[in-house]
Amino acid sequence: MNAAPFVSRVALLRDRVESFDRYPFNLPALRGFDRLELHPRVNFFVGENGSGKSTLLEAMAVSLGFNAEGGSRNFNFGTRRSHSELHACLRLSKGIRRPRDGYFLRAESFFNVATEIEQLDAAPSFGPPVIESYGGRSLHEQSHGESFMALLTERFGGQGLYILDEPEAALSPQRQLAVLSRMHDLVRDGSQFIIATHSPILMAYPDACIYQFGAEGVSKVAYEATQHFRVTRDFLASPERMLRVLLEREPGDGSLSDPG
């Protein structure tokens, strides 16, 4: 489990940025961004919606040659161009190892990936159907959560670089625990993960590097210091008190953002 990372660092080439007053460079987390040192095994990007964590993750994936809507490097399709120009302003430092496998998962566009797989398999080919790598069952004929699990258990083969954007989106807490177990198997097989998430279950993976995106920029934080952990812990410790604070507050008093 001490393998060298496939990607060790991501840096912003600030001299390539035309303006820090334009999206996405005007996001507080990116305005002062310089570089991040990546853990050789598991990295988490966490923060509120709109903080820039998924924007940076997507730009890293595109810079590494992945399709912007997700899939492996062999996928080359687009239903709507939505990614930013950030990828052109990044420098990613790669390790001496090359990944045997790789995948970029975007929860919001995984439906498009499933459709692309069906279209590829409908075309004449000398090779086996693409869907065989996902367990042989159409991803559209499974629930969102089932298709995600098929991706992790069937498609991810180890010794790979896996970039995941909110993989918990369609997963129950029990399935998130199953993802942790599968991640660990893949890590022991020499894989590296970079994950944007809101899940306090996933980010509990031991010895992971957690980067918090927020108004003060990007900083490394301990698991117990994340808002995700603290809010979840406080709610489960006293749901009645938390609900009373939330439901009895005056409209517009701001309590909803941090009821603890």
Concise synopsis of the structure shown:
The chain has 260 residues and is an alpha/beta fold. It contains seven helices and nine strands; from the N terminus they run βαββαββααβαβββαα. It has helices at 28-31, 53-63, 110-122, 144-155, 173-188, 227-237, 239-247; strands at 7-12, 35-37, 42-47, 90-94, 101-106, 160-165, 192-196, 209-214, 217-221.
Descriptive account of the structure:
This protein is of the alpha/beta class and 260 residues long. 29% of the residues lie in helices and 18% in strands. The protein has helices spanning 28-31, 53-63, 110-122, 144-155, 173-188, 227-237, 239-247, and strands spanning 7-12, 35-37, 42-47, 90-94, 101-106, 160-165, 192-196, 209-214, 217-221.
The succession of helices and strands, N to C, reads EHEEHEEHHEHEEEHH
Summing up helix and strand content along with how strands pair, one would put the structural category as alpha/beta
How many domain modules?
2
Instruction: Tell me the name of the CATH class of the largest domain.
Output: Alpha Beta
* Low-confidence region ranges: none
Gap from first CA to last CA: 38 Å
- The side-by-side strand order for the widest beta sheet comes to 5-6-7-3-8-9
